[in-house]
Write a structure and sequence with these properties.
Blueprint lengths: L3 H16 L19 E6 L4 E7 L7 E7 L9 E2 L2 H4 L8 E9 L6 E10 L17 H9 L8 E10 L4
Parallel strand pairs: 4-7
Antiparallel strand pairs: 1-2, 2-3, 5-6, 6-7
């Protein structure tokens, strides 16, 4: 019986690891950011959006995150939704796209953690004989007139602070 106990623990390890979702994109941590310095956390070209953040230096809201449109002429192929309204989770069909950990330059024990979530549109894209996704204007007009427009993929982001605050 004693010999099987370690084997049972090893069998449970994959279940524990499955509890925390793995991000689709993994990048090295960005450089530490100074208080008040606005920096780009992540760009999402499909949604014509850039996530900007900054450490504020205030205890009430130590980190501020804003969504900025990248270009007024940009035509979004995805929507960006407020995380407090949609509550992204794997159970709700969202995928953890990336976790960005931004260290504070003035407080080494503190970092902002931004989770970027992605919800696929749900439809399979039809590719032509050359492997390309082509949209023809007349076909798109007919689909729009019939009310059969495809759903857009969605993105959302949540921010949290980790570590102890500096005085």
């Amino acid at each position: 019986m004693k010999a099987t106990a370690p084997l049972m623990l090893l069998a449970l390890l994959p279940l524990c690891a499955a509890a925390a979702p793995k991000a689709e994109i993994e990048r090295p941590a960005p450089a530490a950011q100074a208080t008040g310095s606005v920096h780009t956390v992540r760009q999402i070209p499909e949604a014509c959006t850039r996530i900007e953040g900054r450490f504020t230096g205030t205890a009430a809201q130590p980190y501020d995150m804003q969504l900025v449109r990248t270009n007024p002429q940009c035509q979004p192929r995805a929507v960006f939704l407020d995380a407090s309204k949609v509550t992204p989770s794997e159970a709700a069909g969202w995928k953890l796209n990336e976790v960005v950990r931004i260290p504070s330059a003035s407080c080494s024990s503190q970092q902002a953690v931004v989770e970027v979530w992605r919800k696929p549109a749900g439809q399979q894209v039809a590719l032509d004989g050359q492997g390309q996704n082509r949209v023809y204007l007349e076909d798109a007009k007919a689909q729009a007139a019939a009310g059969r427009l495809a759903a857009l993929p969605a993105y959302s982001a949540k921010v949290a602070l980790q570590g102890t605050a500096c005085q």
